[in-house]
Amino acid sequence: MTTFVLVHGAWSGAHGFRHVRRLLSAAGHEVFTPSLTGIGERSHLTSPAIDLSTHVADVVNCLLYEDLTDIVLVGFSYGGFVVSAALERVAERVRHLVYLDAFVPADGDSVVSLTGMALGDPVGPEAVWLVPPIPREFDDPAEAAFSQPRRTGHPVRCFTETVRLARPVEAYDVALTYIKATGEPRPASGGPFWTAADHARTSGRWGYHEIDTNHMIANNRPAELAELLLTLA
User: Fold this and answer.
1) Per-residue pLDDT tens digits for 103-150
2) pLDDT at position 189, please?
3) CA-based nearest residue to 226, from 82, 29, 70, 44
4) Is the CATH number of domain 3-232 3.40.50.1100?
5) For residues 10 and 78, is the Cβ–Cβ distance under 8 A?
6) 211: helix, strand or coil
7) Nearest 5 degrees, angle CA 222-CA 226-CA 229?
8) Who's near 81: CB < 8 A, 6+ residues apart?
9) Which has fewest Cβ within 10 Å: 15, 172, 183, 204?
């Protein structure tokens, strides 16, 4: 039996992994999908004070309080920032770190610095502290009907806070895998997900896999993703 910890992305919640979670559990594995504070099913806790560090603590505490060890830790999209920062505190509990079409930040990076995201006035009386969800496409209309109403605003400090990494993830004694959604067009500038994928694909330190769909892999191709995660386990 393998223990999986699946960390969702921005504007979403643990429900985004519900199909994959059921498939992994049905195969006999233990699956945790921690919810990040202030978004998804914990959107009632949102506030201007929530930042990347809050979400790192959410994941770290899940591992510590459940006493999880020898885990496969998966970070989707923005969740790549979260798992990268969490690794420093729980590396001895992680066997395999998987980036699912995700950011792979370096020390000092932020979502804003890697994407150039325009966030409006971040301070002052007209400050915009909750970032509305960006549009996403889902292959199945039923999945879209379920997911779209559950996409929530995201606290801006999660995107502006810089990540602090004492060491790059390659320096830890954990297996590394990048899974790229190849249905996403490659921006002329490369973009952070394609840049991370290109590095993983050409590096002997990383495993690399592709799934032919858009960014919402867990919603659009849950069976294919679950099968891939089982091979990594």
Assistant:
1) 999 999 999 999 988 775 555 545 579 999 998 999 999 999 999 999
2) 79
3) 29
4) no
5) yes
6) strand
7) 140
8) 52, 75, 103, 105, 109, 111, 163
9) 204
Contact by Cβ (8 Å): 68, 32? yes
DSSP summary character for residue 201 = H
Do 34 and 191 touch, CB atoms closer than 8 A?
no
Render 101-164 in DSSP notation, one character per residue.
S---PPTT--HHHHH-------SSTT---EEPPPP---SSHHHHHHHGGG---EETHHHHSPP-
Q: What residues are annotated to the active site?
A: 77
Considering the entire predicted model, what is its pTM? 0.95
Torsions phi, psi for 198 (to 5 deg): -60, -40
Name the percent of the chain lying above pLDDT 70: 97
Give the position of tokens 């966030």.
119
Beta bridge partners of 75: 7, 99
